[in-house]
Design brief:
The protein has 143 residues and is α/β, with parallel strands linked by helices. Helix content is 34%, strand content 22%. The protein has two domains: 2-43; 65-134, Nucleotidyltransferase, domain 5. It comes from Oxalicibacterium flavum.
Length: 143
């Protein structure tokens, strides 16, 4: 940016400075035009058919394992709290040796962070669990 200095004709000691904003306005208009041109290109995506929501009847078997993650990120095996992801992996490794292998059902609180549920999924993968399901509430009718 350029600054123009003008001197008051009546007194040589007074200096009045003004900032020339014309180059700033020019740059901002160019940036605005660039953003307006590039935004439609960014929002276009490959046309794919996304899956629709489906509800399956949940068959709870006694051998299935229910893991719950509350809003604070604590993990529960049924009603019993699990110390951490390593303890969960160790318990799941014992269960994964059974034949047939039980299904793991994960119940995540709506306010739980994705990271907390992700730790449970990683523990299941490390233990060799083949079938993992997520338990959700059915959608409200008419919504």
């Amino acid at each position: 940016m350029a600054a123009a200095l003008t001197f008051d004709k009546g007194d040589d000691d007074n200096v009045v400075s003004e900032i020339n904003t014309t180059p700033l306005v020019d740059v901002m208009l160019v940036l605005l035009i660039i953003f307006l041109i590039t935004i439609p290109v960014v929002t276009n995506t490959i046309d794919v058919k996304l899956p629709n929501e489906t509800n399956h009847v949940r068959e709870t078997k006694p051998e299935n394992i229910t893991l719950s993650v509350d809003s604070s990120g604590a993990i529960f095996w049924g009603l019993e709290p699990v110390a951490d992801a390593n303890a969960l992996t160790a318990r799941l490794k014992e269960i994964s040796q059974k034949d047939p292998q039980p299904e793991v059902e994960i119940r995540g609180d709506t306010n739980a962070r994705y990271e907390s549920i992700g730790r449970v999924i990683v523990a299941c993968q490390r233990a060799g669990i083949v079938k993992i399901g997520f338990v959700t509430e059915p959608a409200a009718r008419g919504a």
